[in-house]
Design brief:
Layout: E1 2-4, E2 13-15, H1 31-51, H2 61-70, H3 80-95, H4 100-126, H5 133-136, H6 138-144, H7 148-154, H8 160-171, H9 175-188, H10 206-214
Helix pairs in contact: 1-4, 2-3, 2-4, 3-4, 4-6, 4-7, 4-8
């Protein structure tokens, strides 16, 4: 509380500080906050491994199976990151007695499981302030995870599952700046407050009049 003097007689006015708006609690970053997302990824991995065939599929599956097995070069753009990360995984499974075709398909299944886990985490962060956010975060997982178009990418040697996984991982870093930008826009286009209208003894100034004329609801 800060006393403010005024001209004339009478005790000084006392002005108070603005009440700060309590911030919503952030989702814990530790292992406890990731537990539901990890469970979603493990469930998706089990489903995709169960659906993955032990044979080579159509489209580019035969080419990617050969590329992952021999650490070769695929058609342009060559998919170097996909090949360099997938070859040790496929070679390890083959050393354990798994066939080359199923090992390559399992690499796509792993990418689909990572994508589902990151999708759940992203949804959980976006609905953190909503009521029942923990339940709403499972909605995109249940709609997207078992979709037949998606399971086709996660059960054959294709790059689509890892593309979605990398996209979800990149989007997971975006919500915080996006929320800050949204708050900045709301502060910029806020409606005039009651005190800006002036009292009955003093008409509003030109700044208030300009705000009333130019303000539009966002």
């Amino acid at each position: 509380m800060v006393p403010v003097s005024r001209r004339g007689k009478g005790p000084p006015l006392v002005t108070g500080t603005k009440p700060t708006t309590p911030r919503s609690p952030a989702i814990p970053v530790g292992s406890a906050g990731w537990t539901p997302s990890l469970l979603a990824g493990i469930g998706a991995l089990a489903l995709y491994l169960l659906l993955a065939p032990p044979a080579v599929g159509d489209k580019d599956a035969a080419e990617f199976t050969l590329v992952l097995a021999t650490r070769g070069v695929a058609h342009p753009t060559g998919y170097p990151l996909y090949t360099l990360l997938g070859h040790p995984f496929v070679a390890l499974l083959h050393a354990c007695g798994v066939g080359w075709a199923y090992a390559a398909n399992a690499w796509s299944a792993l990418g689909g499981a990572v994508a589902v886990a990151l999708l759940h985490r992203l949804a959980r962060r976006l609905v953190a302030d909503a009521r029942g956010g923990a339940v709403l975060a499972w909605l995109p997982v249940l709609l997207f995870g078992p979709n037949p178009i998606w399971t086709f990418e996660t059960t054959l040697a294709e790059t689509g599952s890892w593309h979605v996984a990398w996209s979800c991982g990149a989007a997971l870093l975006a919500p915080a700046p996006a929320r800050q930008a949204g708050r900045a826009r709301r502060r910029r286009f806020r409606p005039p407050r009651r005190r800006d209208l002036g009292s009955g003894l003093r008409p509003p100034g030109w700044r208030t009049t300009r705000r009333l004329c130019c303000w539009r609801r966002p």
